[in-house]
Amino acid sequence: QEKLQEEVALGLRLTKTIEAQQKDKKAPADQEIKDYYETNKKQFEIPETVHARHILVKTEEKDDKKTKDEKMAKAENIRKQLTVGADFAKIAKTSSDCPSKEKGGDLGTVQRGQMVKPFEEAAFKQEVKAIGPIVETPFGYHIIQVLEHSQSQTKPLDEVKVAIADTIKQQRMQEEAERYLAELKSKAKIVYADGMAPVAKK
Known about the structure:
With about 200 residues, this protein is α+β, with helices and mostly antiparallel strands. The chain has helices at about 1-25, 30-40, 65-85, 90-95, 115-125, 155-185, and strands at about 45, 50-60, 105-110, 135, 140-150, 155, 190, 200.
């Protein structure tokens, strides 16, 4: 407990010392911020997403061909209703085998890699608002509607300028802390006592 308190006290003293030194230094220059932004652009990328909803006619591994054909026919009938104007949310609530039916089939906004491959490929290439063709996955037969499709983009520099400045300041503090600790270690004298482990003494 005593050792822990000493380490906490040392950490607080070190933080205060570094912060005091940082106050005398200038804030990151615009060019420094711009250079960081250009070098680390991937950090500021907003990935491509789709907001989709679906209706699932669930299949099971044990299903024989006749059962699967009946389920496909059910999915085709649902899709036909939707293409002539049936309310997607209402049909999802009464006919979907996915828990999302309680939200009208809404799956929210998803990125690539968050859905099973056949579903993802269909959703990301499908036209917005269109009722897509039936897609088969290990879960069953899906009728998908994409509500929104946002392409990947990079946040503009002005939007992340403050965050970058803070990051640069933190990096400076880390570097200063490492330099300060290295300096303390270089000034320490190593004293050996009989039967005791080496200890550092200022």
